[in-house]
Automatic annotation (TrEMBL):
ABC transporter domain: residues covered: 3-185
SMART domains for the chain: AAA
Gene name in the database record: ccmA
InterPro entries: AAA+_ATPase, ABC_transporter-like_ATP-bd, ABC_transptr_haem_export_CcmA, P-loop_NTPase
PROSITE patterns: ABC_TRANSPORTER_2
Protein name per the record: Heme ABC exporter ATP-binding protein CcmA
Length: 190
């Protein structure tokens, strides 16, 4: 098992977003989380990635988790290839194959701050691909992507699962992920 959550509760400010939440992701599996704005999708994903402590429950994670959120977390002043190499060095990977997969190899010399919204998003996904983490935690990964970008993202997730990785994805946009389990958060009564 790559990640297991048991009886998790999440309190944000005074609000209990969810409780007694249990889920597990094994190698090759994907889970798509949907639900209205503010219901707690990002909070759940942050807990899965180890970025937020749950107010109750247990998490077991085997291996590294790669977090993809709203921010690109790439140095705006560096050429894209250097910005990605910075992370790849820390993670022990190489960015070039990941840039190819996301169709941004030609942008290698361009400073990150000159990239368009969709190019930046592709770059963030390339960073996730290059991380080598077994668990991908993707919060609205398709935001800003064109149709081709969405197809590349879906292919990258498929490829990751084929190599015994797992992914949990919160999305408002349709994302074709074959055989993914679905979790719809409805929220608790206020
Ligand atoms: N640091 C915080 N302190 C207090 N409340 C927070 C904090 N972060 C988020 N919240 C609240 O927790 C709730 C859930 O937020 P979250 O970002 O998990 O929702 P979401 O389902 O991902 O929403 P969206 O679809 O808009 O991205 C919201 O009501 C939000 O205002």
């Amino acid at each position: 098992m790559i990640v297991t959550l048991t009886d998790i509760a999440c309190l944000r400010g005074p609000r209990l977003l969810f409780e007694r939440m249990s889920l597990a992701l094994d190698a090759g599996e994907a889970l798509v989380v949907t639900g209205p704005n503010g219901v707690g999708k990002s909070s759940l994903l942050r807990i899965v990635a180890g970025l937020l402590r749950p107010s109750a429950g247990r998490i077991e994670r085997v291996g590294q988790a790669a977090w993809l959120g709203e921010a690109t977390a790439l140095d705006g002043d560096r050429p894209l290839i250097e910005a990605l190499r910075f992370w790849a060095r820390l993670d022990g990977g190489v960015p070039e194959p990941a840039m190819d997969k996301m169709g941004i190899a030609h942008l290698a010399p361009v400073p990150v701050r000159y990239l368009s919204t969709g190019q930046r998003r592709r770059a963030a996904i390339a960073r996730t691909i290059a991380s080598g983490a077994s668990l991908w935690v993707l919060d609205e990964p398709a935001n800003g992507l064109d149709t081709e970008g969405v197809a590349r993202l879906a292919m990258a997730i498929d490829g990751h699962r084929a190599k015994s990785g797992a992914a949990i994805v919160a999305t408002h946009l349709p994302l074709p992920i074959d055989g993914a389990a679905k979790l719809s958060l409805d929220g608790l009564p206020a």
